[in-house]
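We keep the chain:
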Amino acid sequence: MSVYDYAIASPAEHLIEDILTMIQEKDAGQPEFHQAVKEVLTSLEPTIDKHPEFVKAKIYERIVIPDRVLMFRVPWVDDNGDVQINRGFRVQFNNAIGPYKGGLRLHPSVNLGIIKFLGFEQVFKNALTTLPMGGGKGGSDFDPKGKSDMEVMRFCQAFMLELYRHIGPDVDVPAGDIGVGGREIGYLYGQYKKIVNQHACVLTGKGLEYGGSLIRPEATGYGAVYFAAEMLATRHKDIKGTVSAVSASGNVAQYTVEKLLQLGGKVITLSDSNGTIVDEEGIDQEKLNFVLELKNVRRGRIVEYADRYNALYYPNKNVWDVIRQEGLAVDLAFPSAHENEIDGQNAAALVKNGCYCVSEGANMPSTLEAIEIFLDNNVLYGPAKAANAGGVATSGLEMSQNSMRLSWSREEVDQRLHGIMKSIHRSCLEAAETYGKKGNYLVGANIAGFVKVANAMLAYGIV
């Protein structure tokens, strides 16, 4: 029986179905959150018989409800002197093993359901890192695209004017996510420091000049590649000589490409919200440097890459649609854009075109149907909470450096990141085998993260 089959056959399935029904009723209009809960809970079925203590203490019911949800208005003034209003969110989902930790997303699509799904995923991802971090997430429906630096600054300052009350180095330590890079973190931290009159590790992804960590910008992309390399090693394969498809062209995608190049791989795609480029010759380091300048400095569109390097450009299409429609052959896939970017049709096309490994750089980029297709076709599938945990792991390392008032070298941070990704891979495999799902990284990641958090919740009693 598939991990997504729901025919009632056991008390475990009864329990899971009851919780899913509760979520549908009490959290209506939050499809992304429903999807995340469904994916996790169905894969936790093997734990129910082994852990009656979790059932008795209603850990399964409790873990899908956040500790608290914060929602607030963010008024700010644009360059024309007009007042603008956005909605701000922070969901502090679970702090059983450490302070809440998770990024801030600035994007028009942000709503409560998306922030809850991200916070829920973060709980298990952070547990996998081996570092003492709980799970949370936040953001706003503010769109930094097309805004001046002064407008972004005024928004960030207004956002922090409310958020500062709810965060702290031992309470909640946000970071960046979509739409929040070094510029935004600087404005947010500057406002926090002004309000509380102290330097404290309340944000990660900071600039090196004021407490940031080397390798932090690279960490999510590097980690996704390290995880893919570990998966490939189980089949006596490696990155060298492979052809990869990478979606997006922001921070995660950029450094996924860089690490793939360092390990001897070839990358042929990148994208943004306007379209996709396909470069059959491969994106080398010189071309990647152009992308870094294009996206991080000029904040331009990926079509400029196509114009400069005579690559194919597909307007208004994502990478996976292009691969499906053009029949592009790739060995590895690194979805690095956003949730649900790979649907069932795209997953089937990837399998048909020879893809045998998927390592998720974005959060929940594959639909439930796509995941099932990967698993049914023996594709090495690295779920986001494991494969992209390198970013938050290095945020945890930044917190450690801040606490000790020191800075580690680039080599030391990268070595620690690599070690953490190896540990996450090992934990996933061990949990999958222990609970009867050998080789299933999805089940292994969910169970390994869940059991750690559940045991902590159990130790605290009913709180």
About this structure: Residues 410-434 form the longest helix (25 residues). The chain has three domains: 1-64+440-463, 68-200, 217-378. Residues 1-9 have pLDDT under 50 and may be disordered.
